[in-house]
Amino acid sequence: MATHPVRGVALAGGGPLGAIYEIGALLALAESLRGLDLTGCGIYVGVSSGAFIAAGLANGLSPKSMHRMFIESDAADDPFEPDLLLRPALGEYAHRLASLPGLLAFAARQYLEPGGSAGFFESFSRLAHALPTGVFDNTGVGDYLTQLLSGSKRTNDFRQLKHKLFLVATDIDSGASVPFGAEGWEDVPIARAVQASAALPGLFPPVEIGGRFYVDGALTKTLHASVALRAGAKLLICVNPLVPFDARLAAERGRRNERSIVYGGLPSIMSQTFRTLIYSRMRVGMERYRAQYPDADVLLFEPERDDAEMFFTNVFSYSDRRRLCEHAYQRTREDLRRRHAELSEALGRHGVTIDDGALADEHRTLLMRGHKKNHRQPDPFGQTAAKLDQTLDRLERLLTACAAPERDQQAS
C-alpha cells in the first residue's frame, strides 16, 4: 500500500506496560479500519516506550509482527527478552563509587575545618553526588534495536526511511524537548534515539548524544502530537496507555469495590500522581490542537478512567503481557463500537472506514493458541481456551475484591 504523507501515528509512553497496551490497541485498529495501513503513514511520533513501537512501524513492522516479537516472543525469529530492561547499570555504579573517596574527603575537611560554619548534614550532603543516576542499564534495548533494524528492508538511519519519524527526548540540562529525526537531528541512529527517549529518570541513566544528556521525552509532553501536526499530518491516530484511575467510577460500573488507592501504598500514590499530571497536560494540548489545526483530525485511543486492570498492574510488568495485550485489544474494539458515529465521520474525511463486520465478530481474540489461525476461521479450541482464561481472570479479580473488606476489618 502506498504511503499517505498526511496520515500520522503518535504514541505515548508508559514503560513495558505502555508498549504492550499500544501493540494490542494498534492490532485492533489495524483489523478494524479499512483504508488505513499503520505501516504506510507518512509521519510517526514516539515518546518513551512509544518511541520503540513508532520506530518499528516506520520500518514496516506491522502490529501483528510486533505482537509476535514482543508478546508471543517464544515463536519469534527476533524475540525481545524482558531482562534487557532489568540489567543493573554496573558502569554507572562503578563511576559513582569511584567518586566517593574524594567526596568523602572534601565533606570531612569542610566539617572539621576550624571555625567552619557548615554543619554535619550540610557538609556531607555532597555525598549524594555519588548516588547512581539510574538503577538499570537500557543499553541492551539499544543493542537489540540496532540488530533488529539492520535486517532486510529496515534501517537504523532516519535519513533512509520512506516516512518521517520523530522520537522525542528531553535535554536534561536545559529541559528542552528534542525531536530526533527532525532537521539537524537526523544523523543520530534510531536505536540510540529510542534509548534516549525511554530513559526514565531514576530508573535509567541519561543517554549521552553529541556531548549532551537526554532522558524520557514525556517530561515535557505526553504525546508530542504537535510534532506530527507541524509536519503536516491531517489524520493523526494517537494512543495513550496511561490515564488516572477513577475509583468511584469503577465502583459505579461494578468493576471494582470503591476503595481508596491509598491502600495500595506509595506505588499507587506515585502512579496516580504521575498519571494525573501527564494526563491533564495532554488534555490541555488536545484542546489547543483543535484550535491551532482546525483542518486536522486527531483521534485519541486510551483506556477508560475505570480501568483497574491497567492501573493496578505494575507499569514494568512483562510476565502478564499476553493478558494485558488482549485487554488492550478488546478495550480498543469496545471504544471503536462506542464512538462509531464520531469516528466514522472523522475517518471518512480521509477515505478510511470502520469494518463493522470485524467489530461485530465476538470471537476475535489474541489468545488463540499459536495465533496462526486466521481470525475469519477461528480455532474452536483456541476460542474456548481464551474464554476460559478471561473467565478465570474475572473470577480472580472478583475474589480479590470480595476479600479486601474482610482483610481491612481484620487489620483494624
What does this structure look like?
This protein has about 400 residues and is α/β, with parallel strands linked by helices. It contains 15 helices and 10 strands. Strands 1, 3, 4, 5, 6, 7, 8 and 9 form an 8-stranded mixed sheet that branches. The longest helix is centred in the C-terminal third of the chain and has 32 residues, at about 380-410.
Comma- or semicolon-separated keywords:
globular; two-stranded antiparallel sheet; 12% strand; disordered C terminus; 412 residues; 15 helices; 10 strands; single chain; alpha/beta; 46% helix; 8-stranded mixed sheet
**What helical percentage do the residues reach?**
40-55%
- Stretches with pLDDT under 50, minimum 5 residues: 369-389, 403-412
Mean pLDDT: 84
Which quaternary structure do these chains form?
single chain
- What is the overall shape? globular
User: H/E element string?
Assistant: EHEEHHHHHEEHEEHEHHEHHHEHH
Count helical runs: 15
What is the CA-CA span between the terminal residues? 63 Å
β-strand percent reads: 5-15%
Largest sheet: 8 strands, mixed
* Structural class based on helices, strands and sheet pairing: alpha/beta
Number of strands: 10
Radius of gyration: 23 Å
